[in-house]
Amino acid sequence: MRIVVVSKRSIYIGLIIATIMMITGIFFLSSLTKSTLWYTSANEPIRNGDPASNKFAITCNVDWGNEVIPDILKTLDEENIQITFFVSGRWAAKYPELLKEIYSHGHEIGNHGYSHKMHSKIDRETNRSEIIRTEQAIENALGIKSRYFAPPAGDFNEVTLEVAKELGYTTVLWSVDTIDWKEGSTAEVILNRVMKKPHRGAILLMHPKPETAKALPEIIRNIKNENIEIGTVSDLLGQAEDK
Predict the structure, then answer these.
(1) CB 3.0–4.6 Å: which of 5, 147, 183, 215 could bond 190 by disulfide?
(2) pLDDT for 197-206, tens place per residue?
C-alpha cells in the first residue's frame, strides 16, 4: 500500500483554490439568473415574462426609420400580430400621423423618452421631463397615456426607475436583442441572433431597419412553429391594454 503524505501547505492551497472556484461559480450563476429572471420587483426593470409561458412579446423602438415602418406593419397585419412600439417624444411630435397609423393597426404604444438621452447620465428632473414630454406627445396624437417606459439603449439607474414609477410607468427592457443597429446585421444575422435565444416568456427588441423588416416574417414563423403566441408587452404580462 502506498502512503501519500499531504503537507499542510498543500491542503491550505487546495482550500483557497476550492473557495475561489466556488465564489466564481456563485457569481456566474447570479449573473445568469439576473439576465433571465422574470422581474416583478419595483427596483428592477422587466426584462421578460414568465419563462414557463407560451407567450413572446415583440417591441420596436422608434426614433427614426419611417420608410421601413410600413413594411413592418404589413408583415404584422399578414400574421395577425400586434406588438409594442416604443416611440420617442420628438418622433411622436414630428410624425403624429404615422403614429396614428401604427396605433390604428392595434399596436400598443410605449414611452421611449423624448430626445433619446442616456437616462443614467441625466438628473432626476431631466429624467422626469423626458418621460412627461413624450407622454404629452403621445396623448396629443392618440389621446391615450402609455403604461410602459423603455429607456433609450436600455440605459437607466435607480433614479430613472424611481421617476418612471412615480409617473405611473413600468420600465421594460428585453431578453432577446436583434442588435439590428450594428454594422453587418443582415437579415440572416438578425434571424440567427434571435433564434439562438430562449423564446418562452421573452421580450424581443428590434428597430425599424430594412434588414430587420426582411428578417421579421421568418422570425415570426419560427416562433409560431414553437407553439408560442406573439403579442404585446401587455399580452406577455397578462395585463389588459387600455384602449
Answers:
(1) 215
(2) 999 999 999 9
